[in-house]
Amino acid sequence: MYDFDYHKPSSVADAVKLLSADPDARAISGGQTLLPALKHRLNRPTYLVDLSGIAELKGVKREGDKVTVGALTRHIEVQNSPEVKSAIPALAHMAAVIGDIQVRNRGTIGGSVANNDPAADYPSAVLGLGATVVTDKRRIAADDFFQGMFTTALEPGELLTAIEFPIPEKAGYAKMRNPASRYVMVGVFVAKTKGGVRVVVNGAGPGVFRQTEMEQALSANWSPDAVAGIKQASEGLNSDIHGSAEYRAHLVTVMAKRAVADAG
Q1: Could you tell me which residues come within 8 angstroms of residue 204 by beta carbon, excluding any fewer than 6 positions away?
Q2: Cβ distance 193 to 169 under 8 Å?
Q3: Fold entry, domain 6-40+59-166
Q4: Domains 6-40+59-166 and 170-263 in one fold
Q5: pLDDT digits over 115-151, tens only?
Q6: pLDDT at 63
Q7: Sign of the dihedral through C-alpha 212, 218, 223, 228
Q8: Are 120 and 202 in contact (CB under 8 A)?
Q9: What is the rounded distance in angstroms from the CA atom of residue 52 to the CA atom of residue 58?
């Protein structure tokens, strides 16, 4: 990797100050994406801003009808959180099936959401639950946050600090994993919320997206049978050596049925 300087601030204010001072600086939390990029010389930051020492970015708390998860909360902590398990068991289940045990013990929810990898799990839960992304500057609705492959509404120097998840009536998640990389080939998150039914697909295309036809069907009849006959269009979906666009389109229906069954 290339040479770079290293900073480890102890507060959000100090981290934001460092990131805002240089457009080529990069924040690092779990390092699951950035470290491999550095090792392959695909990224050349002037310095890294290590967020791991910022206590205010860590932890889970339940307040009223929402669960707030700090950006530095690791996947294993979301998986084992009593608050998440009782309020949004689908989110705890999702965390439990991310990558492998090493990834779950190092990766963070904020890093995953800010990176917005098309094959990541958390973005579908954020969008599927109609969550709010909290930064050092503002609050961003999930519908406005994800803008395409590896692209979000975050501005240069802006730091994701927490995610607020509304507690749904019920929710479920199912995915087909690549057996080698364990990245998602197709995943579907379903949720019945106060604002209506949401069905979100991840892994199938260049970004997460809502499946509105399935949302309408489940609004009328919450059961796996309601989505069994709905076919996802293959246009615009990913197609590679692991699976064609048509195969991924088929998996959307299969995973949607499993997700509804998982939700109960």
Answers
A1: 185, 186, 232, 237, 238, 248, 249, 251, 252
A2: yes
A3: 3.30.465
A4: no
A5: 999 899 999 999 999 999 999 999 999 999 999 999 9
A6: 95
A7: negative
A8: yes
A9: 9
Helices (H), the chain: 12-21, 34-39, 75-80, 82-87, 89-96, 101-106, 109-115, 122-128, 142-145, 212-220, 224-228, 245-263
The whole-angstrom separation of Cα 7 and Cα 18 is 8
CA 79, CA 88: separation in Å to the nearest integer? Answer: 11
Q: Please check whether residue 173 is in contact with residue 123, taking contact to mean a CB–CB distance below 8 angstroms.
A: no
DSSP element (H, E) containing 18: helix 12-21
The domain 170-263: what is its CATH number? 3.30.390.50
Question: β-pairing, 47-50 with 5-7?
Answer: parallel
* DSSP bridge partners of 184: 177
Residues in the chain: 264
Averaged confidence pLDDT in the chain: 96
Calculate the CA dihedral of residues 102, 76, 254, 141 and round it to 10 degrees.
Answer: -120
Residue 30 β-bridge partners: none
The two structure tokens encoding residue 116: 């917005």
Query: pLDDT tens digits for 178-228?
Result: 888 888 999 999 999 999 999 999 999 999 999 999 999 999 999 999 999
Q: How far apart are CA 184 and CA 70, in angstroms?
A: 24
**Segment 3-41, tens digit of pLDDT:** 999 999 999 999 999 999 999 999 999 998 899 999 999
Q: Where in the chain are the domains?
A: 6-40+59-166, 170-263
Helix (H) or strand (E) holding 250: helix 245-263
